Amino acid sequence: MQLAISGPFRALRHKNYRYYWFGQAISVIGSWMQNMAMQWLALELTNSALLLSIVTASEQVPVMILSLFAGAILDRKQKKRVILITQSLLLFFAFVLFLITYTDVVQYWHLVVLALMRGVVTTFDNPARQSYMIILVGKEDLPNAVGLNSMIFNLARIIGPAVASLVISTVGIEMCFLANAISFVPVIIGVFLIDAKEPQKEENGKSVFAEVIEGLKYVYKTKVLLRAISLVLIMGTFILNFNVLIPVYAKLALGRNETGFGLLMSSMGIGSLIGAFLTATRRKEKINLNLLFKFILSVSLVYILLGINKSYKVACVLFVLVGLLAISFNTSANALLQLSSSDEFRARVLSIYFLCNAGTTPIGNLFTGTISQKISPWAGFYISGLVTIVLTTMVLITTFKRRSLEKTK
């Protein structure tokens, strides 16, 4: 049954997407509660920006190593089955984290190991879920579906940290991990109820390695994909280091406790929610490379402002802008890559996207963690912003040069 829904929520007219979306709406709140609790726990155990960056980087290392192979494997598999397995494993990891924290045996190395294990699973989970959406809604409603998915993700970014800070200060940090474990149940049920038909996968006799190379060549030869991926790589390495930058900024630069940290995260979530809504209302024809350039240069300027700011109230306002611009970039890049890819290569293209978007953050985490510790808690922001502007300008100049050459031919 397809409901008569239009406007910014038009993707919800698809029954299968509703099953998926409402399950995710609950699950991502738990995920954000766990993210904040795990970051704060790592900082409390070590009081070190560098050691915190190692925990956050550990979750992304598998993405960096396995993403390309994950995409090639996923292009051969039924997405629904993969999602059910990955979500069940993430539930299990969250429950283990609850147990070791509740029994007061948790140590720093536990967080590193669990982060690595989560990273392996999410390397398959993220591209599987993203490439599944086009099966649920079709190409016409895909940008709206991506935007709506981002809306609930970022609404959870507001609710999750706020609830987590309250839970930590009242009943204990371990209850955030239990809440996350329980929150996976609705999304598993929702995916199980989906009855969308996926394209039949034909065996082509090629090895996974051969299909990885084929996917890389496809991106390299498709100009819009190559340029978009270049910008995603810059963004993922130097801007999307929130897991390290924000707790360090809150505690060491602005002298705030977990409540202050939670409010900064929620401020960014408010901006992200606005950005996701704007993406959901944007037509697919308006999602292009020029839009990506505007978003990444703007967020870089806000980073520089954060690097010179000393006011907590001003920081809250600036984090609203960071959230708006960062999520607008990510959702637009995601939609552009999916719309510009053929069905045969979509999972591989999205795996390259996640490699550049999240797989490079171990490098970025260590970069910003080291700078924040060696120079100052503010330096991570303004140096990251300056580096991003320089690299983006290089891509922009190269893009305009190629366009000029193409016009003269």
Descriptors:
single chain; 409 residues; mainly alpha; Growth Hormone, Chain: A; 2 domains; 15 helices
What is the class of the largest domain in the CATH system? Mainly Alpha
Q: What is the terminal separation in angstroms?
A: 51 Å
Query: Which spans of ≥5 residues are poorly predicted at pLDDT below 50?
Result: none
* DSSP helix fraction: over 70%
Quick summary of this structure?
The protein is an all-alpha fold and 409 residues long.
Describe this structure in words.
- With 409 residues, this protein is mainly alpha-helical.
- The chain folds into two domains: 9-195, MFS general substrate transporter like domains (Growth Hormone, Chain: A), CATH 1.20.1250.20; 206-408, MFS general substrate transporter like domains (Growth Hormone, Chain: A, Up-down Bundle).
- The chain is built from 15 helices and no strands.
- The longest helix is centred in the N-terminal third of the chain and has 32 residues, at 15-46.
Task: Compile the SSE list and pairings.
Blueprint lengths: L14 H32 L2 H26 L4 H24 L5 H30 L4 H29 L3 H20 L14 H14 L1 H16 L3 H12 L4 H24 L7 H20 L3 H28 L6 H14 L1 H14 L4 H30 L1
